[in-house]
TrEMBL record:
Keywords: Isomerase, Pyruvate. It holds the Pfam family MDMPI_N. Residues 15-153 form the Mycothiol-dependent maleylpyruvate isomerase metal-binding domain. This is Maleylpyruvate isomerase family mycothiol-dependent enzyme. GO terms for molecular function: isomerase activity; metal ion binding. Gene3D superfamilies: dinb family like domain. Transmembrane segments: none annotated. The keyword GTP-binding does not apply. The keyword Isomerase applies.
Length: 277
């Protein structure tokens, strides 16, 4: 157990989710590694490479020196280019090579987390996330690993862990992002409210309110007159809020997503959800 007890829930959730990934891929045949995921351009192998790369960087390992091919259509900006390096450098690795590196990375990272001496509020820096507290960084790692686990499960047709401890931490991280997405990115009107009514194994009602200055906040109080209401299940919400299934106006999840109110704003909100990896 880490010397910082308040960090233990994040470490436990991370452990359960990343070990689930290891178990999922341990017996894959070569063709299954190539199954496409919902992430543009990424296969199961690529998602696992992303997990390994993220944990290696958390360990402080030097980034690979690698030049990306120029024909990767899904690499569209600096963040996707940054993430792609850890993926492309492993693109031709065999299944046994992938599982061996994943297992070794889990052992190393678990040891680091057990010996963590920093305080939850200590600041860490990340090339994409900027400066944030150690606690927030661990929550982000839980979100990333859980999303990757779910991407792999959907690609392989092996659902599970939608209500795991990692899923609940993922929900907290996603909800904290809603005010910026709706107030700033989607440009919801001032003095308006957008409601998310989510059911299933993780259930909640959240209202994002935009004040007279255009600033967004989120709370659990209902709104009497929301401009838009989204009603869906937890798994669909997590996919939509993390940019999965975006093609053709979310046709992959359209039957599970009920939208009431301003349709133009709703479409802007859906389009504004970032692709989280």
């Amino acid at each position: 157990m880490t010397v910082q007890p308040s960090l233990q829930p994040y470490i436990d959730a991370w452990t359960q989710s990343i070990e689930a990934i290891s178990e999922l891929v341990s017996s894959l045949v070569e063709g299954e590694w190539n199954r496409p995921s919902e992430l543009p351009g990424w296969s199961v192998r690529d998602v696992v490479s992303h997990v390994i790369g993220g944990e290696c960087e958390a360990l402080g390992d030097p980034r690979p020196i690698h030049t990306l091919p120029r024909d990767l259509y899904h690499v569209v900006d600096e963040p996707t280019r940054y993430l792609e390096v850890q993926v492309d450098v492993r693109r031709h690795h065999t299944g046994p090579e992938m599982t061996s590196e994943l297992e070794y990375t889990i052992i190393r990272r678990a040891r680091q987390l057990r010996n963590e001496r920093r305080k939850p509020e200590d600041q860490v820096s990340h090339p994409l996330l900027g400066k944030l507290s150690l606690e927030s960084f661990l929550a982000q790692r839980v979100l990333s690993v859980w999303l990757s686990e779910q991407d792999i499960r959907r690609a392989l047709g092996r659902p599970g862990n939608v209500d795991s401890p990692a899923a609940r931490i993922a929900a907290e991280v996603i909800l904290r992002r809603l005010p910026k997405t709706i107030a700033e990115d989607a440009g919801a009107p001032k003095k308006s409210a957008v409601v998310f009514d989510v059911n299933g194994p993780i259930e909640f009602l959240r209202t994002v309110r935009v004040d007279e200055n255009g600033n967004g906040t989120v709370d659990s109080s209902p709104s009497l007159g929301p401009i838009v209401t989204f009603t869906t299940d937890w798994e669909t919400f997590s996919r939509v809020a993390c940019g999965r299934g975006k093609g053709k106006k979310f046709e992959k999840v359209a039957d599970k997503l009920k939208i009431e109110g301003d349709q133009a704003l709703a479409e802007r909100i859906l389009a504004s959800f970032p692709l989280a990896r």
